[in-house]
Structure formats: structure tokens, C-alpha cells
Specification:
Length: about 425
């Protein structure tokens, strides 16, 4: 085998231009497949990131009325849904998939928050506990976070995210200044932002509005104990979870929702029950979006594979030429006792080495093209190691399949007629 490989490289080197042109179809086909697969994988990861977030594995479990979220300011909350106690929170923390949990109250506000004559529109007020900033990985950029004294009492202090700070205090520092929420004054003690600088892939107007309303609106955070000062008592909280891994997000959300529903004496199987705790299956949402493009992606790969077929035909053609050129050599080997299997193995090895070399060059070119495509179009790419390995193995298989006919022809040559041929 090693001797056959040595002879194959010797033959390729002695006909360099012909070998390069023969490998060109294989190189282009493999490079196209690597580029497409890398772009597909990168896009799928981007879809997953856009939906799931920047890696904090956060899941929000909240009350739903039918398929829509229940908004306390507009809907009546059934009596069985009571505020979540610390004992229940501890049960949630004992769920194997849950790393951290926080009890959260939320209100949408439309010009309900003011600093002097400047109002916050399309914002949220969040009543939080001491774990919330850890769950969503917020860090202070100005001032400080809430202290234990803020959570233990009913101090009227607030923290803004950067969007709310820019909206309420354009061009000025918010620290120490006062905002009004439903007529109640709150002093600003800090400004926060999420530590992961997650930038979504916004390509359409719909993507823009989806991201804007989810992340572009301002948030005002107050201690949960201060919530009744502005809003009402005995309001059931949402639960913000941080799962131990991205794959645990679905189970963490579902088990928490099941626990809270069981505590309230309701079940998803009860068709008459319209209000339930639920969590969005973010992984499934990502998978659904990825599946939408799967058919198109497969078509692109099949189209790229056509060039591999063309390259295989080119290999067969050049190997047939090689058999014709080396007829006397084959005849001499057979006259000296070489068996059909040896002759056939030599030509199959040569075809496989030729296509494998083309496959390796194609992989290198494909990786380079992937990076170029990423830079030109800002499309995310992710190099797939399995795709690289499969591409090289597939190119080797192409050499075996398309080198089979020339190898059989060489092995079946009559040594006497071969030696006579000029």
C-alpha cells in the first residue's frame, strides 16, 4: 500500500498541471460544501443566540391567559394564584436544572414614569429581589446596586438600565436625581447594563421591531418590598430562572411552571383552566426557525455536490488516459507475475490519492471562502469539524468509485497485447 501511495504521488508530481486540472472539480465541490455548511451552522447558532440571548441561560416563568401573557393591570388574577413564598422559591432552587432563581414583578408603563417633564414611554417597571441581577447578569455602570437595607425596608430607590437613563436623563447624569412613578418619588442610585454585549442579527424590519420592543425599551428597577407603594399588594410574581446550561432551559422552565401550577391547584391538562404558569420553549422556537431553512440548505448542498460528480468524471477520464499511456508498463508487470489485484490496487490508490489531495485543498479553500463570505456579507460562520472529515472521506470515496472502471480495465489487459502496443 505504501509503495502504491509513493507511486501515486510520483505520478501526480510528474504531471502537475494535468493533476491540478483533474482535481479542480473536487476542490471546487468540497470548498462549496464547506462554505455552505459553515454558513448554515453559523446562521443556526445566530438564530439560537437571537432567541435565547447572550449565554445567560435565563428563562422567565409567568402567568399566561390562554396563549397571551397575563397583564395584572388589565386582567383579573384568579384567587388561587397567590404571591410566591420563600419556601416555594427554595423548592424551585432545588430543581436539578436550576442554577439561580429570582422573584420578579413587572408592569408595562406608558408615560407613567417622569423626570420633570420628560417621560419614559414603552418601558417597564420591575420589582425585583436580590437575585435578579445575578440571573440576568447585570453589572453597574454608574452608582451601585441595591443593598440588603434596600430590600429589607420600603426605601423609595430605583436603578435604571441604560435605555431608561438615556430616555429620562438625556445628556445628564441620573445619579441622585428623582423620578416619579404614579406620583411617588424614587431616587436614582445606579445605572446597569447586561455584561454580555449581545448583538442580534437584524436583517429585516420585523427583526428590528422584535429586538427593539424586547431589549430597546427602558427598564426601571425597584426593590420588591417597595412594589405596593406604587402598585398593589398580593400580586403573584414571575420567576426568572438561570438554567445550568442552554440545554437545561426547557426543563428548568417546565418543571418550575409545573411546580407553581400544582401549588395553585391547576393543571395544563384541564381544558377549562385558562390561566396557568408557563415558560416559553426557547430551544424549540430556535429549532423551528432553523427547520424553516433546512430544505433550502439541503438544496444548496446538493447543487454543490454536482461539481463533485463532475470532478469524479474528470478523475475517471484522466485515469483512463493514464491506463492507455502506461499500457506497456502494465503488460511488463503482468509478464513478471503481477496479479490483477495488484494492478487494480495501484490504479485505485492513485485515483484515491488524487481525489483525497483535492479534498484537502478544497477544505482549505472552503475555510478561506467562509471567512471571506463572513467579512463581505456579515453572515456568521462556524467551521464544522465533522463536515471537514466527511468531505475528505467523501472525496476519497469518489476516487475509489470513479477509479474503479480504469483500474478494472488496467487489470484485465492481456500482457502480450500490452507489450506489443506502441
Amino acid at each position: 500500500m505504501l509503495e502504491n501511495i509513493r507511486l501515486s504521488f510520483q505520478g501526480i508530481w510528474s504531471h502537475k498541471m494535468r493533476s491540478i486540472l483533474t482535481m479542480l472539480g473536487i476542490i471546487i465541490g468540497i470548498a462549496a460544501i464547506i462554505t455552505i455548511v459553515s454558513t448554515i451552522k453559523g446562521t443556526n447558532e445566530q438564530i439560537k443566540e437571537n432567541i435565547i440571548g447572550s449565554g445567560n441561560n435565563a428563562v422567565l416563568v409567568r402567568l399566561y391567559e390562554g396563549s397571551s401573557t397575563l397583564e395584572p393591570q388589565y386582567s383579573t388574577i384568579p384567587d388561587q394564584f397567590q404571591p410566591i413564598t420563600e419556601d416555594v422559591l427554595q423548592e424551585i432552587l432545588n430543581i436539578p436544572e436550576v442554577a439561580e432563581a429570582s422573584l420578579v414583578l413587572q408592569r408595562s408603563v406608558y408615560e407613567g414614569i417622569f423626570h420633570l417633564s420628560t417621560g419614559l414611554t414603552n418601558g417597564y417597571v420591575m420589582g425585583i429581589d436580590e437575585h435578579y441581577f445575578d440571573v440576568y447578569d447585570y453589572i453597574p455602570v454608574q452608582g451601585r446596586l441595591f443593598s440588603g437595607r434596600d430590600f429589607d425596608g420600603t426605601r423609595k430607590v430605583a436603578i435604571l438600565d441604560q435605555a431608561a437613563a438615556d430616555a429620562l436623563f438625556p445628556g445628564e447624569a441620573p445619579l441622585g436625581k428623582t423620578i416619579e412613578m404614579e406620583g411617588e418619588p424614587f431616587v436614582i442610585i445606579g445605572v446597569v447594563q447586561q455584561s454580555d454585549a449581545f448583538q442580534p442579527d437584524i436583517q429585516t424590519e420585523e427583526d428590528y421591531y422584535t429586538y427593539y420592543y424586547q431589549n430597546g425599551t427602558g427598564r426601571v428597577f425597584i426593590p420588591g418590598r417597595a412594589w405596593p407603594i406604587v402598585y398593589r399588594y398580593d400580586e403573584p410574581q414571575m420567576v426568572a430562572l438561570r438554567a445550568k446550561s442552554t440545554e437545561d432551559m426547557t426543563q428548568a422552565g417546565k418543571k418550575t411552571a409545573d411546580l407553581l401550577n400544582a401549588r395553585a391547584g391547576v393543571s395544563e391538562t384541564d381544558t377549562t383552566q385558562t390561566v396557568l404558569y408557563k415558560s416559553p420553549d426557547l430551544l424549540q422556537q430556535a429549532k423551528n426557525l432553523q427547520d424553516l431553512s433546512a430544505a433550502t440548505n439541503q438544496q444548496l448542498i446538493w447543487i454543490a455536490s454536482i461539481s463533485l460528480l463532475v470532478g469524479g468524471i474528470g478523475v475517471m477520464n484522466i485515469m483512463l488516459v493514464s491506463v492507455s499511456e502506461r499500457t506497456r508498463e502494465i503488460g511488463l508487470k503482468k509478464a513478471l507475475g503481477a496479479r490483477k489485484r495488484k494492478i487494480m490496487g495501484q490504479f485505485l490508490t492513485e485515483a484515491s490519492v488524487l481525489t483525497s489531495l483535492g479534498g484537502i485543498l478544497g477544505v482549505i479553500l472552503g475555510i478561506g471562502l467562509s471567512q471571506i463570505v463572513s467579512r463581505i456579507s456579515d453572515a456568521p460562520v462556524a467551521i464544522s469539524i465533522p463536515a471537514i472529515i466527511l468531505s475528505v472521506l467523501f472525496s476519497m470515496a469518489v476516487g475509489i468509485v470513479f477509479g474503479l472502471l480504469p483500474s478494472i480495465k488496467a487489470a484485465n489487459l492481456n500482457p502480450i497485447e500490452a507489450l506489443r502496443r506502441e
